[in-house]
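Per-record layout

source: Leucobacter komagatae
name: HTH tetR-type domain-containing protein
length: 225
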Amino acid sequence: MSALSDDTSTTRAYRSPLRDEQAAETRSRILDAAAELFATRGYGGTSLAKIGELAGVSPETVKASGLKRDLLLAAFEKSFAGMEGVSSLAAHGPVAEITADTDNTRYLAGIMHFVAESHRRSSRLWATLISAAASDAELEAKLHELQQRRRSDMLILVDELMSRDIASAGIARQTHTDTLSFILSPEGYNQLVLDAGWGQGDYEAWLVRSVMALSGPTQVGTEVT
């Protein structure tokens, strides 16, 4: 019995790398389809059946991937950061790579490019998320958690700017955080790019100028020692 039990345990513990890869690819398609539909049709206008149809999978497969509200959140995370489950942008690979650059000009341009591209992929989803949370208490709670994580990311960004002498020490950390959160908001992207018709490059340049203007006398153009 012992040997049989061990064999059974081993069999159950085995995971097929190919199956895992296929499952990940299927989920990616589902989230991409969900992102497109939520962004264009809104939360109420998107059904799990429509997501499955666009993703090329059955409605049952979509249902197995999560509740509708969870798919919206996951689709937003994937669209913004490029992957699900990023709890801190500071530790996220692309951001960490930008932060490793000691040249302040390249660093600031790189961070603003990351923000602009993230908004390009996800800002419509953010609007859908805000709207849907107004009538869904569970989604509202998860949105609050997401906003708290965003707040933490802003604090980390302010600390990095201060450590590089880009942000003025004469401005309170909390004030910097509040103002940067406003400037880097997806709502601002929607207003300037989607509504006013700004080009992506113009928006990025505006972000850089705005951060520099907030910081007073800066050290942009120098290197971190």
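summary: The longest helix spans residues 104-133. The radius of gyration is 21 Å.
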